[in-house]
Amino acid sequence: MEANRGWVKQGMSERNLQVEYKEWFNRECEAKRGKVLLNVIITLLTMAAEETVSPDTNNISLEELSLNIDFGNTNQALVFFDLETSGFMGDCDVLQIAARHENTSFSKYIEPNEPIPESASIVNGLTNQGPDMFLYGEKVQSFPLRIVLEEFLQFLINCDKKCVLIAHNCAFDARVLVTIINEVSLKDEFSNVIDSFVDTLPLFRQKFPGAVCKLGALADKCFSVSSQKMHDATYDVLLLQNLVFKHFTLNELLSKVKNFVKTINFSQNLKSLRPLETCVSQPIRKRMAYEGITYDNILSMHSLGEEKVVELLEKPDSDGKKVIRTKKIMNAILNYLKNLNT
Questions:
Q1: 65, part of any domain
Q2: Does one domain contain both 103 and 252?
Q3: Over 80: is that where the pLDDT of 190 sits?
């Protein structure tokens, strides 16, 4: 044995020597593993710090970045929009509508019908005393819902093209926007200017698999910006516009559009299909509703014969696939209809 080993002691038995050696060896390995782990952590933290802010976006505002965007020539106006709301349910109050087309912006606050819940105020900084609204304690001018929607409509008309409305988590924003448009009976007017919706959330999830794709997280990754303005709709649409044009081509952006007219009729169609909930799952009823199929349509076709029902339910959807794609579900619907007559 080497005399300079720390575990060697004079007069030790061979067994004790082996035990002492194992203990020394384990201590040495732990120390080395600790050093390796520390180096790995330092390396990862360094890489993360280098990726957080792109060098070309230091000390430059999002407004300045937008001026450098090449919007190109499109047949449709790309309008980024965002809603601030009093909650996450479909019947919540809309508190702010903001939108941006190229370098032109729109933003209006809306008088709430109910007190703004504290949970919402913590997120967006908006509070109210009756119809008076405050943003972080400072009063902001707010207007009745119909007036704001009429002004938003005029903003879209001024784009001079059919509009594609783009939002992050558009599944929520589109549903709420459609609800308030119907509420003030402006469906036909908006249908004349809006072509479709695009949801950027699934696009970013596809672009960055496994990453957190909330707007704030994407901002931290790509731009040197403060998170203090997050959840102000005006700021969010400006941020989203910059993020989209940084990461996606026009073809990628428009690859998953949702037709506006179909979307605006969706809620009503889905409600009509409630009698089928005993035999058809909600996701399939949603697909039927989006494709314009209503309960009355089905009953009308059934009066003409089962083959007409099958023809209606097997028509191609937006992806070119049948609305009802399995014999099991088709038979369940046909059996339901048969039982209505017994």
A1: no
A2: yes
A3: yes
The structure tokens listed for 193 are: 């200017």
- Distance separating alpha carbons of residues 126 and 96, to the nearest angstrom: 10
Identify which has the larger pLDDT, 290 or 219: 290
Domain range for 41: 11-52
Residue pointed to by tokens 């910006």: 225
Please tell me the predicted confidence (pLDDT) of residue 53: 35
% of the chain at pLDDT higher than 90:
47
Domain count, the chain: 3
pLDDT in tens, 109-121: 999 988 988 888 8
pLDDT tens digit sequence for 97-106? 999 999 899 9
**34 located within any domain:** yes
The domain spanning residue 243 has which CATH number? 3.30.420.10
Confidence of residue 293 (pLDDT cuts 50, 70, 90): very high
pTM as predicted: 0.71
- Has residue 256 got a pLDDT over 50? yes
Pick from 34, 31, 28: which is nearest to 20 by CA? Answer: 28
pLDDT digits (tens, 9 = 90+) for 13-23: 656 656 665 66
**Residue that is written with structure tokens 């304690």 in the block:** 137
CA 54 to chain centre: 24
Is 204 found in the same domain as 74? yes
How would you class 190 by CB atoms within 10 Å of its CB: exposed for 0-12, middle for 13-18, buried for 19 or more? buried
